[in-house]
Amino acid sequence: MGDMEKLDKMSMTVKGGGRGKETDARNRDVFTTGEVAQICKVSQQTVIRCFDGGRLKGFRVPGSRFRRIPREALVSFMKANSIPLDQLETGRKRILVVDDDEAIVEMFVELLERDGRFEVRTATSGYDAGIVTEQFRPDVMLLDFKLPDINGVAVCRRVRSDPTYEHMKIIAISGAADPSEVEELKTAGADEFIRKPFDINAIINRIADMVHAAV
Question: Nearest 5°: phi and psi at 126?
């Protein structure tokens, strides 16, 4: 775990930074701490600590305590902390597809990438999902309930135990879960449950609604 993640864990008692309207970062030259928090998927308090500690360069607005971060300083900070630059550069939302069914994975990848609003990564097990989640920091996880090494409930609990990923939406998918298992998934932190077979276009539209992806 890097310094950024450690700082974020310490500071997540203060929540809410950057949780409002999504920031279109593609043409911005200067950012607020709330906007940086949204882009980096951390709390605003973490950004403020990094700024005040000199790890994130920027300036204060004259006559006020407001902090501002130039684009080049933000890029340097993100690179130093292994934070993906894709949202800063493209504005696309990150989707992680976790399923051991190769046909379903390929279908999601093809359709989501063709849509143009999303960047997609995949995992075929709970173990791989953990690694990819840490590296990719997805906005939405499409999660198969029954993976070869672990079930979706355990994955949801693991994700929700880490405040680094509090922004992430989880859509659980299964053709076999009974009502009690669906309830357990939602209690563990899944935002929605969709039963197979499903309408792929309806899922893509729901993802876009969840992350406010522009048409």
Answer: -65, -35
